[in-house]
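Q: Protein A?
A:
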Amino acid sequence: MYAFVWVERFLILSGASVLAGVFLGVRDLLPYLAARRSGLIVRRGYAGLKVRRDEDAERFARLLSNRARGMAFGFSLAVLAAIVFVVMAFAMAQYFQAGHI
C-alpha cells in the first residue's frame, strides 16, 4: 500500500461531501423560495400539512426559519468539504512533485 492512500480517500470523500451538501442545500432552497413567493409552506412528514402565512404567521415563520437553517447546513457542508478537497489536492500535488512516485 502506498503512502498517500489516505489523501486519496479524503479526496474521494470530500468530493462526495460537496455533492451531498449541495443536494441538502438545494433540497431546502426550492421550497423556501416557493414559500416566500406564495405564502404557503408544506410541512415535511407523512401527511405534508400546508401552513398559510395569513392564517398562522408564527408557525409559518418557524417553518421558514427551519428551511433556512437546513439550507445553511447544506451549503456550509459543501464549502467545508470543498476546502478539505483543495487542501488534500495540494498535499497530493506536493507529494508528486517531491518525486515520491
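Q: Protein B?
A:
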Amino acid sequence: MNRDYVYGFLALIIVTSILTSFFTFFYIYPNITGRPVQDTGNVQVNVVSGLGIAIDTVYNVIDFGNIARDRTYDSDSNSPTYQTPISTNPILIRNEGNVAADIQICAENAFWSGSYVASDFQYKVDMPLLTGSDNCGTDISLNNNCFTGSSGSTITYTNLPFPTFPNPCTNVNAVNNLQNADTSDEVELDIKIHVPVDEPTGAKSTTITITGVDPVTIP
C-alpha cells in the first residue's frame, strides 16, 4: 500500500475526531464551564425548649389594705365574693418560654401569727380579666385557651400550707399546661384570707414563690 495514502488516511481520521469533539463540546454543551453545574446542600438546626415564667410588672402584689379581725377577703377579679376594702387585684402569671409549663407555688413564711387554721390562707387560679390581659375564653373548665382548667389546675380555693421551721415551703400544684403563645399564655393567681379573731395588729406579709416546671412532672 502506498505510504503517502496511509499517512493521508490517518490524518483524515485525526482531523475528523478533532472536529467531532469541537462540535460536541461547543454545540451540544454550550453552557458548561465546569462539572457539576448544580448541587444541593442541607441546613439543619434544633431549637431547644425553654421554660420561662414571669410575673406581670403591674399585677405583682396583692394588697388587701386595712382589714379587720374575723373577716374574709379575696382578690378574685372575676367574681369577688368576699369583702375587699380596696380595689384588690390578683397576681398575673405569664409563660415567657417557648413550651407549655405547669405552675407550682409555695408560701415562704407564715402569714398569720394568731390562732389560725389551714383555711385562713387559700389560693386558686383563674382566667385573667385584668386590663390588657389575654382573652382565655368564656369557661374556665370547658372553653379555656390558656391552660387546662378541667384537670390538674386548682380552680377552687384550696389551702396553701405555711412552712414549719426548719422545713422549707412545700410546692403545690396550681396550673396545668399553661400555654406559651403570646395571646394565650397568662393566668391569674387569687388569694383568699380569713383574719384570725386573735390576730395581733400590724402589717402582715408573705412571699409566694412561683415556679414553672415541665408539664410531664404533674399528672
